[in-house]
Amino acid sequence: MDFIVYILQSKKDNSYYIGFTSDLNQRLEYHNSGKSRYTSRKMPWKIVYTEKHKTRAEAMLSERFLKKQRNKEFYKRLIEKIN
Length: 83
Description:
The protein is of the alpha+beta class.
């Protein structure tokens, strides 16, 4: 099973949300359903970046690295690189 680190972008205010999952479609549906306290305020969300990892530990490290950046310009450059 692969684990996917993802960045979502709010269509409401262009803010970012970073997480990881083994089922990206289900996770996006969760964020856009209003069930998450944080993401419900900024719905709807779209996927703007993904990366696959073979283990949960690798995905957690990557997620932690991305969250530590706390820099919109960094995220924009990362997203532009894959597009």
